[in-house]
Design a protein that fits this description.
The structure is a single chain. It contains eight helices and three strands; from the N terminus they run ββαααααααβα. The longest helix is centred in the last third of the chain and has 34 residues. Helix 1 runs antiparallel to helix 2 and helix 2 packs across helix 5. The protein is mainly alpha-helical. The chain is globular.
Length: 224
């Protein structure tokens, strides 16, 4: 334990392995989607998009049956809770969340929603060259598919904006509140004020049971 003035801090395990793998996987896959679209490697763009759909689907399900800090019920708060937290944001001694804080929870929900929307739009998008259209584009008309393609591009810009806010928050928490969010998401531990609270985790086989059918579904989708 580390004594920091009036508070005693200890190293607490906060993030389970599936949550950490998800976090870095989505970073890599989103970067791959960006690069493949920018360089017109649309076949690989499609594969990266399948990956995004798979890991987002996993994270949504993990939010209901994963460990304590991964569950939506443990960190999602209503507008009043978000506002109360935002008012204390600069005071590191008044509020310290074990997992996601209320503002971070809001970011997670918006991020998952936009990523899921991005993949769905991409599946049905119709591009002018025809060859790089989404695998389900034949289910919609040309006009609808083109509209989905435009929304796919617009939603990508929203994701870039959200990522920019996320990076800004990481710097803010490091400089103002003294929290290293990046290292915690690598090794799973953070220094936390001692309160006797330790989160519960679930066995890894539960994550495997979720991942296998999702992987099968993505493979079947890719064969369409």
């Amino acid at each position: 334990m580390v004594n920091t003035g009036s508070s005693v801090r200890k190293r607490v395990r906060v993030w389970d392995l599936p949550t950490r793998i998800w976090h870095w996987s989505i970073l890599i896959l989103f970067a791959a989607c960006w690069w493949t679209a920018d360089t017109d490697h649309m076949r690989w763009h499609l594969f990266a998009g399948y990956g995004v759909l798979g890991v987002v689907s996993f994270r949504i399900l993990w939010g209901f049956c994963g460990g304590q800090t991964a569950r939506f019920s443990s960190f999602v708060r209503g507008p009043a809770g978000v506002w109360r937290y935002a008012r204390k944001l600069r005071d590191r001694d008044r509020y310290e969340s074990l997992g996601h804080n209320p503002l971070g929870a809001l970011s997670i929900i918006v991020m998952l929603s936009l990523l899921l929307l991005q993949t769905i739009l991409g599946l049905f998008a119709v591009n002018n060259d025809g060859g790089s259209s989404g695998p389900l584009s034949h289910w919609v008309s040309y006009t609808v598919g083109r509209r989905f393609a435009h929304w796919h591009a617009d939603n990508f810009n929203l994701l870039l904006l959200l990522i920019g806010l996320h990076l800004t928050a990481i710097v803010f928490y490091r400089l103002v509140r003294g929290e290293n969010l990046v290292s915690a998401m690598i090794h799973g531990y953070k220094s936390h004020r001692s309160s006797g609270e330790t989160p519960y985790f679930v066995p890894l086989w539960r994550a495997v049971l979720l991942a296998v059918p999702i992987l099968i579904g993505i493979v079947l989708l890719a064969r369409i």
